[in-house]
Write a structure and sequence with these properties.
heterodimer, A: mainly alpha, 74% helix, B: mainly alpha, Vacuolar protein sorting-associated protein 55 homolog (chain B), membrane (chain B), transmembrane (chain B)
Chain lengths: 141, 136
């Protein structure tokens, strides 16, 4: 099992980059192949997901420990937890938003096609997974 | 193995590597030229990003790519490599999906990507070997 952890530390960031790229390229494909103009509202879940992934990777993992003494005083743990909480909220909101847009696209014929909605959900999911993967591998110190 | 033999083999391998890389470039350009459609050249953007970790860390004494110690920047360049690998597969596929290029151009693009991938992996392996043997 030790070897697996080492291996993960080596290829982890690459895998995370690949998944992130896959998420965004599915979206690019949907926008390029869409017969109608895709409105900015449809771009939002993807952009917010990337933002959320960035947010929860910006956290220094040591700060969540119990013995951490920070220059801001003894009770600064809550800042990190608040940051993480906001990141989680943003990621759930954009997941829900992309699923909602998919349902809306599937129901009407006048808006973007079903592939656009599906690609939006795929993009959101893959970007968030990529953020998680990057988080797990940069803590393998 | 005699020293001269080893250097001869080494430069032979380097020459083969150079042939592989130029073969990849030829395939890439052919994919555009044969069909008189210059859209696949977009993939070149991705190929520029692909060897970045090698360029940054090839001669340096800092922890190499294959080690576990992640400096923040090493991890980020690996992230970029992963994204550009997917990008160089994705751009030709998107062009094909949108009907801008045909099957022939797509297959040449993908084979050019495979050739570059093999060349880079071989270069990493050769670099790893060099460090090992220079210790003697």
């Amino acid at each position: 099992m030790e070897n697996l952890a080492l291996l993960w530390g080596i290829v982890g960031p690459g895998v995370s980059g690949a998944v992130f790229g896959a998420g965004w390229w599915f979206w690019v494909d949907a926008v390029v192949c869409s017969a109608v103009q895709v409105s900015f509202l449809h771009y939002l879940p993807g952009i917010l997901a990337s933002l959320a992934a960035l947010m929860f990777n910006a956290v220094n993992k040591d700060e969540i420990g119990y013995d951490y003494y920070s220059p801001y005083g003894d009770d600064s743990e809550w800042r990190v937890k608040l940051w993480l909480f906001v990141a989680y909220v943003v990621s759930f909101v954009c997941l829900a938003g992309s699923v909602g847009l998919l349902v809306q696209d599937a129901l009407t014929d006048k808006g973007p096609s079903v592939w656009t909605g599906v690609a939006g959900v795929l993009q959101c999911v893959l970007v968030l997974i990529s953020g998680l993967i990057y988080w797990t591998c940069h803590s393998e110190d | 193995m005699a020293r001269s033999m080893r250097t001869c083999l080494h430069s032979g391998r380097l020459a083969l590597l150079a042939i592989l890389v130029s073969g990849g470039i030829v395939l890439q350009i052919l994919a555009c030229a044969l069909y008189n459609n210059w859209w696949p050249m977009l993939t070149v953007l991705m190929y520029l990003m692909l060897p970045m970790p090698l360029i940054f860390f090839l001669g340096s004494s800092s922890p190499s790519m294959m080690s576990n110690e992640g400096d923040g920047w090493v991890n980020f360049t690996k992230f970029l490599t992963g994204a550009s690998v997917v990008g160089s597969i994705a751009i030709p596929s998107i062009l094909k999906h949108a009907g801008v290029i045909g099957w022939g151009a797509l297959s040449m693009e993908l084979s050019s990507f495979i050739v570059f991938g093999v060349a880079i992996l071989w270069l990493i392996q050769m670099n790893g070997e060099d460090e090992y043997s220079s210790a003697f």
